[in-house]
Amino acid sequence: MKLNHIIQVLEEIAPLAYAEDFDNVGLLTGNENQEISGILVCHDALENVVDEAISKKCNLIVCFHPILFSGLKKITGKNYVERVIIKAIKNDIAIYAVHTALDNHKEGVNKIICNALGLKNTKILVPKEKFIRKLVTYTIPENHTELRNALFEAGAGTIGNYEDCSFNSKGIGTYLGNENSNPEIGERFEFVENEEIKIEVTFEKHLESKILKALFQNHCYEEVAYEIYELQNKHQNIGLGMIGQLETPVSESEFLQQVKDKMKCESIRHSAFLGKKVSKVAVLGGSGSFAIKEAIKQGANAFITADLKYHQFYEAENQLLLADIGHYESERYTKNYIVDFLIKKIPNFAIILSEENTNPVKYF
Fold this sequence. Notes:
Layout: H1 3-13, E1 26-29, E2 39-44, H2 47-55, E3 60-65, H3 80-90, E4 94-97, H4 99-103, H5 109-117, E5 120-128, E6 132-139, H6 141-153, E7 167-176, E8 191-204, H7 208-218, E9 226-230, E10 235-250, H8 252-262, E11 269-270, E12 278-287, H9 292-297, E13 302-306, E14 321-324, H10 327-330, H11 334-345, E15 351-353
Parallel strand pairs: 2-3, 2-15, 3-4, 12-13, 13-14
Antiparallel strand pairs: 1-4, 5-10, 6-8, 6-9, 7-8, 10-12, 11-14
């Protein structure tokens, strides 16, 4: 199977357009036309994981964290990142990372945590901003339905749980073509005043080229009038973190014990107990200190995340319980999720869950 086919499958759960701007997701080593014989799924693509891939005859590693995060000016093998890249290239092994592309997916990392903790009625904690755009165009009534359906087919018009959403209004359009024009209605040098329908649809920004292609291919006019705006609306189904409800409220100590058991934590660093029941819980896998205020704003009784610094525990402000369960621990089920997804999508193919524990943090 060619790598580009597997990438298309991975994009279903981790669209690269969903990733944060600072991130480095997608294909890190290898060629999209490469024939893949087996896939090893891991959390971190370290040197021992590359060795595991070699021993298990897998020439594609799908990892959560990108081994290449910032730029490299030299590859001499002087550190763990360079050694991984050298070994992968020497052995013709492709590496593909999903990271925040999967973090931001509504069924991704944070949904996995919610499912493990049994949270109900979940929603995105920090919806993605500046991701929605709006197309406005104008056409004659005879072309209206065909054009609008083509835009829907290209991915426009999805709002939350609804598809094929648009606003359509009637008006009068005018134009006067010059000597080089070839008007659909009227003649050159003729002032045309004609009934038109204004179509307005929203779309996710990464679909813009596809939307415009559909617009130009299905519009009847020689010159297509259109406008594209960046909206301030937040995308409710894409973003970092989640918040949901426990089926039964529990004490803070009971809650932390449940988290410790279900997320397999060796220890949990937490803020002071407030003597309140925990019922509404916010989660954000990985480093999530930036969302503490949002968790408080949305009425969470507890916020599970990782990598909290000393002074960030003060930001609980006696309003919620902060729980730092560890970076690896907060993302521990991610590779299992990827494996299960790939097995369903690509049956009868070698898809292997890495046996290597790549957590660099140890407890004494």
